[in-house]
Recover the amino acids of this structure.
C-alpha cells in the first residue's frame, strides 16, 4: 500500500510514499469518507513529503472534489493541511479546491499548505485550542 492512515483523537494523518498514483489517491479518499470517524474529524493532514512524482489526472480531482462536497455536508469544520515541499503540489491543491468549490456552491474546508509536518501539526492543533 502506498499510503498510511493514522487516525488521531480528533484528526487524521494520511501519509503517501514514493509509489503515489491515481488509484492510491482514490483508494485513500474512499477509505476516509466511508469511515464513521469522519463525522467527528476536526483536521486532516495529507503528507506528500516522500512523493517525488505526481502522475495524477484532472478527472481524479473532479471525483475527489465531488466526494469532498458530499463529506462537507456531514462535517463542515475540518481543517485540511497539505504537506509538500514541491511547487507542483500548490497547483494540484488549487485544482482540487476548484472542483470542491464547484461541487459545493463555493464552500470548502479551510485549507493550507506547509513545507513540513511539524508546521501543519502546529496549525491544526492551535486551531483546536481556540
Amino acid at each position: 500500500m502506498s499510503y498510511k492512515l493514522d487516525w488521531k483523537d480528533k484528526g487524521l494523518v494520511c501519509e503517501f510514499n514514493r509509489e503515489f498514483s491515481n488509484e492510491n489517491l482514490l483508494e485513500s479518499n474512499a477509505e476516509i469518507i466511508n469511515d464513521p470517524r469522519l463525522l467527528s474529524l476536526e483536521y486532516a493532514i495529507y503528507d506528500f513529503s516522500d512523493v517525488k512524482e505526481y502522475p495524477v489526472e484532472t478527472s481524479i480531482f473532479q471525483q475527489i472534489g465531488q466526494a469532498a462536497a458530499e463529506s462537507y455536508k456531514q462535517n463542515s469544520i475540518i481543517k485540511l493541511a497539505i504537506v509538500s515541499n514541491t511547487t507542483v503540489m500548490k497547483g494540484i491543491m488549487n485544482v482540487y479546491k476548484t472542483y470542491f468549490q464547484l461541487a459545493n456552491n463555493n464552500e470548502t474546508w479551510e485549507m493550507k499548505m506547509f513545507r513540513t509536518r511539524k508546521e501543519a501539526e502546529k496549525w491544526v492543533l492551535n486551531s483546536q485550542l481556540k
